Amino acid sequence: xxxxxxxxxxxxxxxxxxxxxxxxxxxxxxxxxxxxxxxxxxxxxxxxxxxxxxxxxxxxxxxxxxxxxxxxxxxxxxxxxxxxxxxxxxxxxxxxxxxxxxxxxxxxxxxxxxxxxxxxxxxxxxxxxxxxxxxxxxxxxxxxxxxxxxxxxxxxxxxxxxxxxxxxxxxxxxxxxxxxxxxxxxxxxxxxxxxxxxxxxxxxxxxxxxxxxxxxxxxxxxxxxxxxxxxxxxxxxxxxxxxxxxxxxxxxxxxxxxxxxxxxxxxxxxx
Amino acid sequence: xxxxxxxxxxxxxxxxxxxxxxxxxxxxxxxxxxxxxxxxxxxxxxxxxxxxxxxxxxxxxxxxxxxxxxxxxxxxxxxxxxxxxxxxxxxxxxxxxxxxxxxxxxxxxxxxxxxxxxxxxxxxxxxxxxxxxxxxxxxxxxxxxxxxxxxxxxxxxxxxxxxxxxxxxxxxxxxxxxxxxxxxxxxxxxxxxxxxxxxxxxxxxxxxxxxxxxxxxxxxxxxxxxxxxxxxxxxxxxxxxxxxxxxxxxxxxxxxxxxxxxxxxxxxxxxxxxxxxxxxxxxxxxxxxxxxxxxxxxxxxxxxxxxxxxxxxxxxxxxxxxxxxxxxxxxxxxxxxxxxxxxxxxxxxxxxxxxxxxxxxxx
Lengths: 271, 363
Known about the structure:
heterodimer; A: alpha/beta; B: 363 residues; alpha/beta; 2 domains
């Protein structure tokens, strides 16, 4: 009999420091475990608790799952104290991921904020695996300071891929910083996308998602073409524990990726 | 129409005690104090006890037989399963409101993305012998949600008291098997007996209507519109003034299902690398959306920061979410939340206040 609350064992094979507050955990599950990009997992720290994370790795790689985690709360602060070769638990995957089959032939605008780039990395890697299917990938990323930029070695490599356009910015610069300074909305001008065949995918803190969504609507994106990753306290992952309700939906089973079309009538979605 | 049998009063008690030999049987006990309404509680009485007929619903919610306030739901990193088939359980005295509320629990735990196996095991293992209400509490308001004070579906057997005995309606295959196994207690019901059941039922319905009419309650047809249009009204703030955030309304509600999934603390926590010290157990704890941290996420953001937001959330879940997803409100009119609330927050009055403010605004 299947027990929906039972996690499987996964070994923490490696831990990569991405920024002063963000680490990537490389997990090797002891049983087969696969996910679709944008779906999330519940990661158990034994005896401590669980928290939901969307893997940041390529879903086509089955042996290992990478999860990029910011030190933000009770479980994540203890996860950040972990050493390599410890055992954690994983359940899932849960929810509906990014509908990349609908992105064929499109200009895909991807807007990330802070650690919100983590789920988007998984999406980017899925898209890069079949770039001939898509017209263009445009990445716009904003971090708080130069130190908070994650995947620093990877971003320049992504920018070199054909039909991939990358611009990033920081809210607050530093003496050494030569790049863009300003909120991520400031690099959403003159986007090299054709609005007649463009979709936008947004992931970041709620306040950033709110202003990016407003900007995109302003630019002429249709609500049905804006995909948002909603942050809620998903716990069971299956629409049973009740915590992640958004209007008539649960973020865990109906999301975590929603179109703005689905959410636009619902009160207080950015809170 | 379902098959209906008849059993004499004295034999019902024999039947009850015979069942106790093969099943775990819960039945109501009664507590009467002074001028207060009698209160019923479910208990597993010893053999030889007398079966008490509860005039209306018990204090405990029916859901407490299916999920518990705190229980282990998984042992992990082990092949050991915690599910065990226990002795079959029979519950006497389940009421129509309990059955209606239980549809919400079934929807949550048996349907959707995946089945909760522990819940299903209990569901398969528990037999309902429900019964008609013969009276009502002051807080009862099932009729407001079009729920009759007698069960019409969702039971295995249902008892209806007549003057000299009981009619027993068969509502399921399991109920039919029970009748067959103890057939010497039962005779087929006569038309006249079924007619007199109807008279008794109609009688109670008209008494209850008379009780509810002056209350001018909100109806099933209008409630979703009210909570939607009343989203920004002061009702939530006003009624929340007396809430002490005890969560009682949620915990005692037959439809409320929210829970926390947590890990049992490990004794070797100070040495997190010592896997051999781990217990590796998941526990499920009933949760309440009135609690301040109910919707809080890591980093501290909380979409239900204010008390008024949390009260409103309870109503949006009951009267908007469940009408959209299940086609019925998640309220069965049992009034348990009204009785339990130390702040005297009354679900009927909250809805009436929304209606009142909206009608004033539209004038």
